[in-house]
Design goal:
- The protein contains 14 helices and 19 strands.
- By secondary structure, the protein is an alpha+beta fold.
- Among the domains are: about 1-55; about 165-235, no CATH class; about 340-395.
- A hairpin with a 3-residue loop joins strand 15 (about 410-415) and strand 16 (about 415-425).
- Helix 5 packs across helix 7 (about 210-235) and helix 11 runs antiparallel to helix 12 (about 370-400).
- It starts with a helix and ends in a 13-residue tail after the last helix.
- Keywords: Membrane, Transmembrane, Transmembrane helix.
- It comes from Streptomyces coeruleoprunus.
- This is PH domain-containing protein.
């Protein structure tokens, strides 16, 4: 109830100022102030009373077999339950306001994407002690984990030197563009947009247009870098990755909003080492979990459920991946089989074709319309895009690879976003073989390992056809052999 009252007061304060300014001009300051104050009081009291009634009619129970939640007011009531044996996650989150009152939001999920939120129960909010108790009770799998496999404790701890990787991502320019757009939108709301534009014009009076564009871009990028640093601090403050007794990986992090995310090890099928181009050039990578039953609904709010480690030096990422998988050496660092030169040719063909397409369109328009400037633009476009496309294609070919490392199947691909996946061989439930007409002529094959974990399918692109089939048969014995014809 107190949380609802504070939230209501915040909304009332945010709307009171523009409402007062709008009413004061028509009915006078005194009457406007009285009317706005009455509306604010009504909003705060009404929100608090509604929230109090809602929680008076909310009940939950943890039974031997099911977790039940009863909600609703008077006529509209809802009863839901989840079987305890199907519960796969109990995650705790608490924004700054909940933390001030010692509360947390508990999200109990089965990891099934049934739609409509039927695979999750949310308790908003309970005391932190009660949230921790629910998490321990519902994720207690001590009897299901072999005692010999226990290596509990801290797997990774926050190192503030990792913050140097925060600006090296697409987030920084996006935040910079958002800052510029927000500035102009805010100035328009207050009716001073013309003044802002005039002030900028005065600062760059007499300067070249190129210098003006570069200066604005630099200012936006600086704002984006500052925003990216702040976002990183908010997301990863007090980060800690640990393995708890009973076989549960727990990630705790967050400055303003504290988060506690749990993944059962029995659901873990591997890890994915993600290296966007900027991070890879700096020798960094992040680690994501490849696990069954991760929450797939409401992705906009829970897209970071699978992230076990933020961007860190590549060696650290490999070490943490090995600790998570209980392996002496990281499978993500294993030597991989290179792909044939025909795979490089395919990538060069795609890249050059994609880069020449806009140039060809401009050249065609220039020829049809007899506009010389379009022909020059086409030549410039080709001169700029083709070399970059060739470099990306060659890099994508160098990054192709696959292999077997102990109990794990390893595949790597990508250039702008290079991903190295170490997938448990026992977690592969099927193979999909794809071969286009051009792949058949080049002797190539694309293998897709199907699994119930992670993205559901992981590809080995453009492998040698014969070698790829042998690899698939050896990686998961008995799965592909019935469909192979071996030469005498």
């Amino acid at each position: 109830m107190y949380v609802a009252a504070v939230l209501g007061a915040g909304f009332a304060a945010g709307g009171a100022v523009p409402a007062f300014l709008a009413l004061a001009s028509s009915m006078g300051g005194g009457r406007a102030l009285l009317l706005v104050a009455a509306g604010a009081v009504l909003l705060v009291v009404g929100g608090a009373v509604t929230d109090h009634l809602r929680w008076r009619w909310t009940r939950y129970r943890v039974g031997a077999e099911r977790v039940e939640l009863h909600t609703g007011l008077l006529v509209v009531q809802r009863r839901r339950s989840l079987p305890r044996e199907r519960i796969r996650s109990v995650d705790l989150t608490a924004n700054l306001l909940l933390r001030l009152f010692g509360l947390v939001k508990v999200r109990i999920g089965t990891g099934e994407n049934t739609g409509g939120g039927e695979s999750t129960l949310e308790l908003d909010a309970v005391t932190r002690a009660e949230g921790e108790r629910l998490r321990r009770v519902l994720l207690d799998r001590a009897a299901e984990v072999p005692e010999a496999d226990h290596r509990d404790g801290e797997l990774a701890l926050l190192d503030f030197r990792w913050i140097r990787y925060a600006p090296i991502s697409f987030v920084a320019p996006l935040l910079g563009a958002a800052a510029v757009g927000g500035l102009f939108q805010l100035s328009e709301w207050f009716g001073v947009q013309h003044d802002v534009i005039e002030w900028i014009g005065e600062r760059f009076q007499g300067a070249a247009l190129l210098w003006l564009v570069l200066s604005v871009a630099a200012a936006a990028l600086l704002a984006g870098v500052i925003g990216a640093l702040g976002l990183w601090v908010e997301m990863w403050w007090n980060y800690r990755l640990e393995r708890e007794p009973g076989g549960t990986l727990r990630v705790r992090r967050g400055l303003l909003t504290a988060r506690s995310l749990s993944i059962e090890e029995r659901r873990l099928r591997g890890v994915e080492l993600v290296e966007p181009l900027g991070l890879r050039l700096c020798g960094a990578a992040r680690v994501d979990a490849v696990a069954t039953g991760l929450v797939k609904e409401d992705d906009d709010r829970h897209a970071d459920h699978k992230t076990l480690l933020p961007a860190v030096p590549r060696t650290v990422a490999d070490e943490v991946a090995a600790r998570v998988l209980r392996e002496p050496a990281p499978p993500t660092g294993a030597s991989l089989t290179a792909h044939p030169a025909a795979a490089r040719t395919r990538r060069l063909r795609w890249a050059v074709g994609a880069a020449l397409l806009p140039a060809l369109v401009l050249a065609l328009l220039g020829a049809v319309l007899d506009v010389q400037a379009l022909l020059y633009a086409a030549a410039g476009c080709a001169a700029v895009l083709v070399p970059g496309a060739v470099l990306l294609a060659l890099d994508a070919y160098r990054n192709l690879g696959h292999g077997v490392s102990g109990a794990y199947l390893v595949t790597r691909s990508g250039s702008v976003r290079r991903a190295t996946v170490a997938l448990q061989r026992g977690g592969v439930i099927g193979w999909t073989l794809k071969q286009s007409y051009f792949q058949r002529r080049a002797g190539l094959l694309t293998l897709t390992a199907t699994t119930a974990a992670g993205d559901g399918a992981y590809d080995v692109y453009d492998a040698d056809a014969s070698e790829g089939l042998r690899f698939a048969a050896a990686a998961v014995p008995g799965l592909l052999e019935p469909f192979l014809e071996r030469a005498e």
